[in-house]
Amino acid sequence: MVFDVARVRGLYVSLSDGWTYLNAGERAQVPERVSSAVSRAFRTAPLQAHTEMSSGSHSRAQVPGGAVGAQITASARLAVADLVGGRPDGVVLGPNRAVLLHTLSTAMSRQLRMGREVVLSRVDDPANIAPWLMACDLYGAQVRWAEADLSTGTLPEWQYGDLVTPDTALVAVAAANAHVGTVTDVAAVAREVHRRSRGWVVVDATAYAPYRVIDIDAWEADVVAVDLAPLGGPEIGALVFRDPTLPAQLKLMDVARGRHATVDVEAEAERRLRALEVGGHAPGLLGGVPAAVDHLANLDDAASGTRRRRLEESLPKAESYMHVLAQHLVHGLQSLRGVHVVGLDGEFDEPFSYDSVERIPRVSFMVAGLDAATVGRRLVANNVIAQVVPLEDSALLDQMGVAEQGGAVCVAMSPHNTAYDVDHLVRVVAGLV
């Protein structure tokens, strides 16, 4: 079935303002159903939930005293669980994944002590690198690095056979690079980690989530981190533990029990999960989380069944459509002299095929003789919004030599984009070369 982009565009009121938005990785447009859900949640969160009247001799009355905000929070946990294929009781909510990963890293003092090792990768965003570097510096663990193939931006999984040892406490990896778009074989990495060590695998799925179905069990990831904003959701992040009892191993100052109390692993894990949610929640914002996941699940109006089932049907169709746009963009940019597509244009003007490696529909490019900020300003002057990648935001782009050329411009496709949007950007760039 053909992807109905006209119907999808109608779900975004913001698209009527005359701008062409190609910056979903930086600031995704918010669907109307999400903004309405947030508005409704802010109004109703402080209210008291209605108590359902009991009837019949075997009925049990609802316990009074609950607030609507608590129901909103529970719905948000369930939506995130559907998004990643996890369990609601393993979901930790917070302002963004960077804050949550920082809290998690500080709680792993036992695991990251001297004599242990942490494996990080160059394809990750700073959000999944900086907290672990700080924790290793504080607690004494040694840092090892997984390097990317600088010709394509991919992360070869075979190197983890040498990097992971019995002393490995944690491996942090991104499911996909946010700017070049290359996808990591997370399952292969996790299998190698679990075969050689008892370390945790922490996966940043933020760039991956808007395009593909996440399956935490198939990945064998111990923790999945995701931000909801790139999905068109509110500024909310989440950590999902595949095993909800795993947090019982964490050390958190907020968690205490009686001196002679019997340890209940599940109760201990639950307390630690909630202790990771430092500062509590904003139920008004959480009200937009189920709406954002529902939006992804309903991109294909023919999808049916549970929300998880609809995600499995809708996302592949939307991704296929966006890949067509990304390929169209790459062909257009490669036809322009002086434009370099990062990870696709090799040396000696020998371009790689767009399909040469597994990727999400994101493309970064440079214009010879112009820094990224200048290209970005010209795009804005022509009503096109793309992401100018700050040099400190991507270790991969830095290693690929992008910093020496003044940075790169990243184009991140959304389901509402069209071929006209792509042609408009290519025309503007053509005017620069």
UniProtKB/TrEMBL annotation:
Gene3D superfamilies referenced in this protein's UniProt entry, alphabetically: Aspartate Aminotransferase, domain 1, Type I PLP-dependent aspartate aminotransferase-like (Major domain)
Keywords carried by this UniProt record: Lyase
Pfam families with a match to the protein in the record: Aminotran_5 (PF00266)
Domain Aminotransferase class V residue range list: 52-315
GO molecular function: lyase activity
Protein name listed in UniProt: Selenocysteine lyase/cysteine desulfurase
Species assigned in the record: Corynebacterium bovis DSM 20582 = CIP 54.80
